[in-house]
């Protein structure tokens, strides 16, 4: 960048606090982009990584396997919605989405339906920054429009408009229904972020939309891909956001919080139908294989992180954080510059009427001892689940003060 914004060197991180090189401490409202759900420097995670590093940091996942990956696959199968019994381990959320797209295409090809090579996505959707991911992100309001001429062209349905607290209106699904009605013979899969559209606007939508989307996919022989990279592992108040609608996808993408924010790791889960159809097709296997697939160090960290989550009172913690954000963000509603305040689970959003000035707002937050990373019109937080009542109060109240 020729005109970079300010950056602040971090010396260390512990719990929910970042310590800057100059000694200042900041309450972290971002959980390092949704990932550090147990806070920084959890002793059990550190111990696991150290012990695994002494045994084996990495080994190729082709023709070889290892206990951390086997345990992790079983944990994910047990934890995720019903029917997702097959696991593919990759090394980042974007790759998990790429894998899900390739799975959908290879599945249709193996069924003798190679003409089903398109996807349908939602406006305001965001699914990652690699090429396949960019092609299913919103082509207008997303961040990837400069690559439009180089991307595969897919179908885009209108974004859901009915929020979780509003009464359901069937017309909200009309756009998706119409696309599937007209083009289902060319569509391999629908990809959605369940209940919460993240980087495309931090938008929350009605569970009935997701339920109806599942019904339509069944009706038109289209796979449903749920991108739960951001929402997975408790963030929305359920272990997985799909549970708000009591549905199970055909393919599920996971990442971010999977290792508690310690290592990069992702997983794509699929049903037995998807896995077996692909495996019985022309290639005889799924055609993807990252070098660091099933990395033992990351898998070991993920196993400990999932155990910490399962054994904790995570639901009560999420409810506690949700209640605190609703209470302490309430004064922002009186700010004439604020368009909306919304909270679901451990996600809190203040939407401004105009884009925020990053060069002003971020230094102001740091001066007051908090770390947030607004974008566009949105000032949002997703705190670590362990954040204390006092820290979440301080974080929310400070944001409200700065926005004045």
Describe the fold and architecture.
Strand 13 and strand 14 form a beta hairpin. A 7-stranded mixed beta sheet has the order 4-12-11-10-7-5-6, with helices on both faces. Strands 1-2-3-15 form a 4-stranded mixed beta sheet. It has 2 domains: about 120 residues, Aspartate Aminotransferase, domain 1, CATH 3.90.1150; about 260 residues, Aspartate Aminotransferase, domain 2 (3-Layer(aba) Sandwich). The model has no long low-confidence stretch (mean pLDDT about 95). Helix 3 runs parallel beside helix 9 and helix 10 runs parallel beside helix 12. It contains 12 helices and 16 strands. The protein starts with 9 loop residues before the first strand and ends with a helix. With about 400 residues, the chain is α/β, with parallel strands linked by helices.
Keywords:
single chain; 404 residues; alpha/beta; Aspartate Aminotransferase, domain 1; Aspartate Aminotransferase, domain 2; 7-stranded mixed sheet; 4-stranded mixed sheet; 35% helix; globular; EC 2.6.1.62
In summary, what is this structure?
This protein has helices at 31-34, 43-55, 67-79, 93-110, 131-135, 174-183, 207-219, 272-279, 296-311, 314-329, 358-367, 389-403; strands spanning 10-14, 17-20, 25-28, 84-90, 118-122, 155-157, 187-192, 196-197, 203-204, 223-227, 251-254, 266-271, 338-344, 347-352, 370-371, 378-381. It is of the alpha/beta class.
Helix proportion of residues, in percent?
A: 25-40%
Average residue pLDDT: 97
How are the strands ordered across the major sheet?
4-12-11-10-7-5-6
Quote the distance from N terminus to C terminus: 30 Å
Estimate nothing, just give the exact number of structural domains. Answer: 2
By CATH reckoning, the class of the largest domain would read Alpha Beta
Low-confidence stretches: none
Number of strands: 16
The CATH superfamily of the largest domain appears as Type I PLP-dependent aspartate aminotransferase-like (Major domain)
**Alpha-beta content class:** alpha/beta
Q: What is the CATH T-level topology of the largest domain?
A: Aspartate Aminotransferase, domain 2
Radius of gyration (CA) equals 21 Å
Oligomer: single chain
Enzyme class: transferase
Function: Catalyzes the transfer of the alpha-amino group from S-adenosyl-L-methionine (SAM) to 7-keto-8-aminopelargonic acid (KAPA) to form 7,8-diaminopelargonic acid (DAPA). It is the only aminotransferase known to utilize SAM as an amino donor.
Organism: Pelagibaculum spongiae
Modified residues (N6-(pyridoxal phosphate)lysine): 256
């Amino acid at each position: 960048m020729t005109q970079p914004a300010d950056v602040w060197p971090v010396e260390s991180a512990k719990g929910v606090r970042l310590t800057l090189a100059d000694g200042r401490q900041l309450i972290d409202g971002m959980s390092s982009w949704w990932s550090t759900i147990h806070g920084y420097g959890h002793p059990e995670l550190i111990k696991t990584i150290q012990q695994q590093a002494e045994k084996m940091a990495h080994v190729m996942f082709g023709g070889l396997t290892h206990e951390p990956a086997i345990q992790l696959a079983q944990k994910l199968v047990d934890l995720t919605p019903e029917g997702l019994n097959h696991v593919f381990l990759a090394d980042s959320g974007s790759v998990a989405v790429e894998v899900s797209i390739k799975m959908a295409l290879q599945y249709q090809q193996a069924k003798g339906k190679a003409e089903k090579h398109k996807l349908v996505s939602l406006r305001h959707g965001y699914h990652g920054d690699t090429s396949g991911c960019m092609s299913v992100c919103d082509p207008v309001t997303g961040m990837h429009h400069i690559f439009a001429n180089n991307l595969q062209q897919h179908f885009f349905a209108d974004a859901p408009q009915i929020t979780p607290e509003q009464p359901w209106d069937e017309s909200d699904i009309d756009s998706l229904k119409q696309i599937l009605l007209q083009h289902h013979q060319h569509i391999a899969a629908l990809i959605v972020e369940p209940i919460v559209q993240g980087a495309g606007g931090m938008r929350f939508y009605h569970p009935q939309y997701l339920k109806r989307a599942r019904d339509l996919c069944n009706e038109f022989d289209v796979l449903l891909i749920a991108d739960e990279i951001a929402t997975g592992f408790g963030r929305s108040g359920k272990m997985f956001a799909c549970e708000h609608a009591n549905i199970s996808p055909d393919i599920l993408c996971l990442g971010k919080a999977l290792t508690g924010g310690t290592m990069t790791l992702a997983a794509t889960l699929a049903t037995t139908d998807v896995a077996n159809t692909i495996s019985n097709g022309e290639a005889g296997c799924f055609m993807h294989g990252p070098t660091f697939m099933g990395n033992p160090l990351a898998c070991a960290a993920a196993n400990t992180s999932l155990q910490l989550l399962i054994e904790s009172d995570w639901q009560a913690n999420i409810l506690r954080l949700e209640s605190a954000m609703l209470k302490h963000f309430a004064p922002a509603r009186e700010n004439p510059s604020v368009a909306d305040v919304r909270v679901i689970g451990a996600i809190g959003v203040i939407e401004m009427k105009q884009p925020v000035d990053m060069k002003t707002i971020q230094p102001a937050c740091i001066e007051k001892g908090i770390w947030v990373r607004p974008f566009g019109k949105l000032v949002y937080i997703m705190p670590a689940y362990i954040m204390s009542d006092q820290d979440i109060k301080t974080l929310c109240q400070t944001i409200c003060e700065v926005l004045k």
